[in-house]
Amino acid sequence: MLLLAFVWLLYGTIHSFMASNFFKNIAVKILGKYFRFYRLMYNILAFVLLIPVFAVQFSTEKETLWQASLYQSVIGKFISVWGVFLIATALQGYNLSEFSGFDFGKTQEKNEFKNDGLLKYMRHPIYFGMLLLVWGMFVADASTRSLTGAVAVTIYLFIGIYFEEKKLIEVFGEKYKRYQQEVPMLIPFLKF
User: Fold this and answer.
1) Number of structural domains found in the chain
2) Which residues pair with 59 in a beta bridge?
C-alpha cells in the first residue's frame, strides 16, 4: 500500500508543480513561441502519467476490509456516478477547447473571473466531483487499495486547492477573497 500511496502523491506533486506559475515561467523560456502548446502538453502528460498510477492501483493486491453488501456496493457506485456527473456538469461551464489546450493558446490566459453555474454553489466543483468518485469507489468495494487511493487523492486535492486559491488571489485579488467568503470551497450550503 505504501507504493500505491507514493505513486498517487508523486503524480499529484508533478501535476501541481507543472501547473504552478514558477514552472510555467520556466516553460515560457524553454518553449518560446511554442509555449502556446503548453496547456495541451500539460494535459497529455497528466493523462499519460495516470497510466502507471492506475497500473499500480489495479495490480496492488485487493485486501478487503469488510465484505461490502449489495446495498453498500450500489450506494458506492451511485456516489461515484454522481461524482462523474458533477465533473461533467462543471466542465460545461468552461471553454473546453481552451481548458484542454486544443485551442493552441489562441485564448491564452484570459483570466476571466467565473462564478456562474456550479461555481455559484462551490468554488471547486470538479474537485468535489473527484472526491465523490474516489470515495464512492471505496464505499463500493471496501478494499485497502481503494482506501489508499481515496486518501491519497484527497490529500492531493486539498494541497492543490491551497495552491490554486493562492494563484487565484494573485490574479483576481479582493474579488476572489470576497468570493471565498461567500461561496464554500467544496460542499454547497456549508462553510467547507
Assistant:
1) 1
2) none
